[in-house]
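Chain A, query sequence.
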Amino acid sequence: TTQAMIIAQTAIATPIVVGFTAASMSALPPKLRLQVYALGASRTQMLWLLVREVRLPLLAAMMAAFGAAISEVGASVMVGGNLEGETRVLTGAILVEQSQGDFGPALALGIILLALMIAVNALFTWVQYGVRRDRWQPQAGGNERDALTPPLTSL
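Chain A, predicted structure.
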């Protein structure tokens, strides 16, 4: 069923997101949480701040999880079958066309899959660039001379 396929894809993507998230959270300064509490932040405010600090690695986690989920064919076929019009996914359609010897449609579907991956990764990269650029903007009411400037390697 479609629900089983969603659960299978989630099971594939979740360890990737958890691993990236754990690694990025462990890279934060150990006393940051205590410092935020000392400044009077609530637990929700503290969690929001920590998520904002690791937003770029979290975006990378989403990119990696999406790549793993969209390229997976085995789990989808195992739990949902490969029924045309019901549970056939793009990678399953490529597999069927290739196994029948129809290499033209298989190649066309592969190009569509590749274009989809490039488009989604370009979107994530554009969002990531916007997030990174926000870091170098001067604060409201501050002096532009006091704003940090990005290193030349990131231009």
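Residues 145-155 have pLDDT under 50 and may be disordered. The helical segments are 2-26, 32-38, 43-53, 55-71, 74-80, 90-99, 103-134.
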